[in-house]
Structure formats: structure tokens, C-alpha cells
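We examine the record.
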Amino acid sequence: MTRLDRTDARLLLALCDVPRATGVQLASLLGMARNTVQARMSRWDEQKVLAPVDRCVSPRDLGYPLQAFVTAVVDQHRLEEVIDHLRDIAEVTEVVGISGAADLHIGVVAVDADDLYRVAGLILAVPGIERTTVSVAMRDAIPYRTRPLLERIAGEAG
């Protein structure tokens, strides 16, 4: 079920280009009524459509230039407990449940290789984690994005 329509996508694309634009500026840029823009933005807040601002902050700018991914095999009876423990490790940036040979895909950041070793040890020490594999990110080939999807919904791209 799509929660965003063409108008939402057009507004979001304008915000991608001018992130600090006001509702009045967006209305002017897109030829929309100010009330329409304000109603859409209010609905996004109510429905938590937009990710929190901390998602926009680069760990590199916080002093954590090393990015890695840890896959973890977990005792299924302790899965929620494991996730709760991982939430307490500041260097864990995301946890995604996956199918396949592992159960969790854990994004982590570290200051350097020694720090990554420490963080990996913290993860492996979580009760319920049976084994882990660490992969260091060499570069961000395609950083997280949704712009092409917004463009599709807005009718700007095929």
C-alpha cells in the first residue's frame, strides 16, 4: 500500500533540493496552495513518514570513519533479547532481520580497526548470539537513497 502520492513525491523532491525550505517557499516553487503543502507536511509528521534527522548525520563527521557489517547467527528463542542488547551498543547503527545463513545484518561504525575489533567483541558477547562474521565496508558505491523512487512516483522518470 503506497502512503505517498504524486503530490507528496513532488514536495519531497523539492525538499531534497532545498532541505530548509519553508512551506511558503515550497508552495511557491511547486505552484501549490500553501494550505496543501502544510496539510501534507502535517500528515507526514503524524504518520512518521520521514526518518529521524539523525539518519542524515554521517558517522564519519562524528569521528567514526570505519563502517562495517556484522552478520550474526542467533538463538531464535532469544532474538528479541539480542536485539534489545544490540540497541545498547552506541556503535550499532542499524539491525535488520534477514533470511539465509544468518539471522541479523548489523551495521556498525568504528574509529579504526582496533575499535572495530572491540565493537565486534561486544556484539559476539551478547547472550543469544552464536557466531558472527564481520565485513569491512570499502566504499559507499550507492549510498542509501529513495530519490529515484520519488521521481518515479512524481512522474519525472520512467
In short: Helices lie at 6-17, 23-30, 34-47, 79-87, 113-124, 147-154. Residues 98 and 104 are 6 Å apart (CA to CA).
